[in-house]
Design a protein that fits this description.
By secondary structure, the protein is of the alpha+beta class. The protein has 31 helices and 11 strands. Helices cover 58% and strands 7% of the residues. The radius of gyration is 29 Å and the shape is elongated.
Length: 700
């Protein structure tokens, strides 16, 4: 929907904050945006988000330092403070930090769990860019505590989520469309990366390549402006300082490109190992059913502390160890040891439910891997070559590229973090090869694998993800028409004339599905009906093998089954192994459900605002005879979850938005899910035919 259709005032979408400035201030901002024009107002908006994101990044870094001083004592190098602490402190502090993080995630924002970027990607792809404002606060404190107490995570994931939440909140407060809110989220992500790493170019490309997944001119221009604004703020407060001060490295011999290619190959394998290990630890902790979720990060903290007793280098962000690898201060043995230990430490932290990013651990492991390859190459190859530190630099980028599948961002961020152009050729070769190898070995990146576990495939497109969220049981019709396998052809012709169904399902003596007969099958038999009337029975013309779906299947599976034949409806079997038909699902039912879900996804940024502009109306015509209706929840619907009410099956209606009664919830507007329970006084927006809305209101 274009911004030109948006009203001037309205209620915020699901999870949005209420603007303190009031409707008058919002109308003024809206009027200003119209006078300036869309392009100019977008630049102004990107600048505001960039400044806010820059200050957010500075605050987040201050928060980490503050919590580090509280946990380990004030002053000094973080690694030195870890190393000189008593053994019980190294065990106890990460465990206590994990417990605090678990409590924050449980009571304030479940989205703060993990490394954050997948949640932002999901919000952009499936929620119209809507992110709850509380996420920014909860993520800042949870991640700062996790990092400060020794958790093996980085700053980039949290600051991406924090910046994105800031951008989303700005878009929600200004009542922007979903498309504009998504752009605001990208601006916030770019601002966070740019301010955190002093890398404005990489910040912009990260937002476009990973978060938005596109380089559309208007959106990319906005994220560039936001990235620049955030960098100006960070440099003004923190200074224009490179993330890593390294010696000058250069390509000594053209033959070194072979070594850099080999490094890319190894980084690709290591990146996949990182993704697999982290994924495995997440599943391991999820299988601990008897342990409360908020306790699991405590167990992860104990694991990190145990590793820290042997190798304190793996605790925290680990920039000190990275610098040691870049300056060739670490020997071959310690590089191999910290590479393996960091992999386990990061998996303990994030797999158990801790909070923090995967970017810094990827840099750490990449530096260790690159340094290892550099040391071994100098022993194995006869030609002169650069210092192992040069390979550590390139290894950082290659590991990031392999883990994130974002080679452009990896190349740019290493260049900006080191300001060293002389290793760019090796960096480019290694990053591209690492990405290709990682994608060949595993389709999912470290960001998308978490979404794939929820059935969300960003590469498959929005339509597949929408269909995967709906089960057959939510759409199926229980009116099923079966015929015995031995029914004569004359009976089938009679049913073809009288029935409203497109297909008939043949069943055997046990009433189990045996085949499907379509209208087309019967039409082909019509010219020969006189000859076949006494000879053919139902099973003679039924389709085999039979095509069916089960109640627990998702609608993308249904569409795959429809693609096998030209059927208009399919038999529905119960979950498990039962073969008795209990319903039917039609192709048009799937299409209608898809359209309603798309409407629900696209409306959060604009629906509530539209409804406020027509306060005297309760019903709005849409297309195809369907209406949007605003009504108070009828008493017969209250107190039961939506999944139990089965409004789709009973009334043909879809609940789009729920407005909680005043004082009943901290989040007044929310998108309904299966477990949503309506309460007396709640408002609801439903989508369907007018007569069905009337039936629902009457309770018929």
């Amino acid at each position: 929907m274009s911004d030109a259709l948006e009203p001037e005032a309205g209620a915020p979408p699901s999870g949005a904050c209420r603007p303190a400035s009031g409707p008058g201030a919002l109308r003024s901002l809206r009027s200003l945006r119209i006078r300036l024009g869309e392009r100019t107002s977008l630049i102004l908006l990107a600048t505001i988000i960039g400044l806010a994101g820059g200050f957010g990044a500075v605050f987040f870094r201050w928060l980490i330092t503050t919590f580090q001083d509280l946990a380990w004592g004030a002053g000094g190098d973080p690694l030195a403070k870890f190393a000189r602490s008593a053994w019980y402190v190294r065990l106890g502090v990460p465990a206590a930090g994990g417990l605090l993080v678990g409590l924050i995630v449980k009571f304030f924002a479940p989205e703060a769990r993990g490394h954050g970027v997948p949640e932002v990607m999901n919000a952009v792809a499936r929620q119209g860019g809507v992110i709850r404002p509380i996420v920014a606060v909860a993520k800042a404190f949870a991640s700062a505590i996790s990092i400060a107490t020794g958790g093996s995570v980085g700053r980039e994931g949290p600051i991406v989520q924090i910046g994105s939440a800031i951008g989303s909140t700005v878009g929600q407060v200004l009542r922007l469309s979903s498309r504009r809110i998504r752009t605001c989220v990208g601006c916030g992500a770019a601002a966070g990366v740019a301010a955190t790493f002093n890398a404005p170019i990489a910040g912009a490309f990260f937002a476009a390549e990973v978060i938005l997944g596109e380089f559309r001119a208007n959106a990319f221009g906005a994220v560039v402006i936001s990235s620049v604004a955030a960098t100006v703020v960070a440099r003004s407060i923190l200074g224009d300082v490179l993330a890593f001060q390294i010696p000058h490295y250069a390509l000594v011999n053209p033959a070194e490109m072979i070594t850099y290619a080999l490094l890319g190959l190894l980084a690709g394998v290591a990146g996949v190992a990182f993704v697999q290990t982290l994924h495995g630890f997440e599943e391991l902790f999820e299988r601990l059913r008897g342990v409360p979720d908020f306790i699991k990060p405590l167990l992860g903290g104990l694991g990190i502390g145990a590793l820290g007793l042997v190798l304190p280098e793996v605790m925290g962000v680990g920039y000190e160890t990275i610098e040691g690898a870049l300056e060739v201060k670490l020997g071959l043995g310690i590089l191999v040891a910290v590479l393996a230990a960091k992999l386990l430490a990061t998996s303990f932290t994030l797999g158990s439910g801790g909070s923090g990013g995967v970017f810094a651990p990827s840099l750490f492991m990449g530096a260790a891997l690159g340094g290892t390859v550099g040391h071994l190459a100098r022993l194995a190859f006869p030609f002169p070559m650069a210092s192992p530190g040069a390979y550590a630099v390139v290894g950082m980028g290659a590991m990031v590229a392999a883990a994130t599948h974002a080679p452009i961002t990896a190349i740019l961020i290493i260049f900006e973090m080191t300001a060293d152009y002389r290793v760019i050729l090796g960096l480019m070769v290694s990053c591209i090869i690492a990405t290709l190898v990682a994608q060949r070995l595993r389709r999912e990146s470290i960001y998308t694998i978490k979404l794939m576990r929820r059935g969300i495939d960003l590469q498959a497109g929005q339509e597949v993800n929408v269909l995967r969220q709906i089960r057959v049981r939510d759409v199926m019709q229980h009116d099923v028409e079966t015929v015995p396998c031995g029914a004569p052809l004359a009976e089938l012709f009679r049913r073809m004339v009288e029935s409203s169904h497109y297909e008939f399902f043949t069943v055997d003596d046990q009433n189990e599905l045996a085949g499907v007969i379509s209208i087309d099958d019967l039409r082909r038999a019509l010219p020969h009906r006189e000859q076949l009337a006494q000879l053919a029975i139902a099973e003679d013309i039924a389709t085999s093998p039979v095509i069916y779906v089960r109640t627990e299947d998702t609608l993308d599976t249904v569409m795959q089954q429809f693609g096998k034949r030209t059927f208009e409806e399919l038999p529905v079997l119960p979950a498990g192994t039962g073969r008795q038909p209990i319903g039917t699902i039609k192709r048009q039912d799937v299409i209608r459900a898809y359209n309603q879900e798309i409407l629900k996804v696209d409306l959060p940024g604009t629906l509530s605002a539209r409804l406020r502009t027509a306060a005297t109306r309760r019903t709005w015509e849409t297309v195809g005879g369907y209406v949007l209706a605003q009504l108070e929840a009828p008493p017969h619907l209250c107190g039961r979850p939506l999944a139990e009410l089965r409004l789709r099956q009973a009334y043909g209606l879809q609940v789009i938005l729920v407005e909680r009664a005043a004082g009943s919830s901290a989040h007044r507007y929310l998108l309904p899910v299966r477990d949503t329970v309506l309460a007396p006084g709640d408002g609801m927006i439903v989508f369907g035919r007018r007569e069905d809305v009337d039936r629902l209101t009457r309770g018929a």
